[in-house]
Amino acid sequence: MSLLRRFVKKANDYRFLLQSNSGRSFSTVNPNPFASPGRRTTAEFDNLIYEAGNSGDFEAVRRLLNTRVVNACFNTSATFKFLTNTDSYAPSLEDLRRILPQTDAGYTRKHAYETLIARLCKLNRIDDALILINDMAIGKFELSTSTFHPILNTLTKKNKIEKAWRVVELMRSQELSMDVTSYNYFLTSHCYDGDVAEASKVLRKMEEEEGRVMSPDTRTYDALVLGACKSGKVEAAMAILRRMDEQGLPVLYATHAHVIGVMVESGYYTLSVEFVMAYAGKDKRLDEENLGSLASKLIKRKRFNEAKLVLKEMSVRGLRMGDALRGFYETNVIKS
C-alpha cells in the first residue's frame, strides 16, 4: 500500500486529531478635490489626506474622507499613514477623534473609524484603538464584530491571549458575538505554538457559541494543520486535509507548506514526494510552490535522488523554477 494512503485517514473529530510624498505644504487644500477636470483615484485621495494630516489641516481630512466615499474611492491601509509614533502622534489622534464624528453618517463614518483602528493596531497602539472603540460605542456609530478584528489579530499574534479575551468580553458587553474569524485568531496563535490543548479549548468555545452555529472555514483548518505539524503529527495533518477535500473547502498554499515542511523535517522524504504529486495538476501556481519548495528542502537535506525526481516532474509540467533550482536541474539532471 502506498505510504500516502496509510497516512491519509478519514477523521470526524478534528480536536481529537490535534490531540493525537510627504514634504509638500497643504495649507491651500481645495475643499472640493474634484474642482479640476478628471476623476481622483484612491491613491490620490490617500496622498491628499496624507498631506492634509501632515500639515494639521484636519477639516480638509474630514472633507476628503466624505468626498472619496461618495466617489467610490474607499479608504485603504495608507489612508491614515500620516499617523505615526512620533511626538506629534497624540495631537493628531485627538484631532482625528474630533473630526471623525463629523463625517457623513453611515458607511463613511464607520469605515473611517475602522480604517483608523487598523492603522493604530499596525502601530501597536492597542490602547488607543480601544479608545476609538469606546468613541464608536458612545456615539452609536455602528460598532460591529469586524471592527474588533484588527485588535484581536494584533494581540493574538503577540501572544497576549489574556488581553485578547478581555477584548472579547468588551465585545460581548456591546452585545456583539464572536465570529469564525475572531476564533481563528486565537486558534492560529495556539497552533503556531503547538499548544494543541489550548487550541482544542478554542474549538470547543467556537462550537458552543451561544445561539450560533459556526462551521470551520479554510483558515480554521489551516490553523489545525499548522497545530498538527508543530506537534509533529503528520497523520493528523493529512487527515485534516482529507476532511477539507471532502467538504470542498479550498486549501491555502500555506497549508500545503506546513505539511511539506513537517514531512521533510520528520524524514518522510518519499511520502513528501507522494503528497505533492497527489495534488499536482489542479493549480499550476500551487504546483510551482509545492514542488519548488519540496525540491529546495530535499536538496538542503542532501536527498538528491528525490530532488531530481521532483525537478524532472517540474520540467515535464513546464513549471517555473527559481535560479538555484534551475542551476541544480541543469547540472545534476540534464547533464547526467
From TrEMBL:
Name listed for the protein in its UniProt record: Pentatricopeptide repeat-containing protein-mitochondrial domain-containing protein
Any Pfam family hit: PPR_1
Record-annotated Pentatricopeptide repeat-containing protein-mitochondrial domain positions: 108-204
Keyword Transmembrane: no
Gene source species: Capsella rubella
Entry's family note: Belongs to the PPR family. P subfamily.
Ranges: PPR repeats: 179-213, 217-251
Entry keywords, A to Z: Repeat
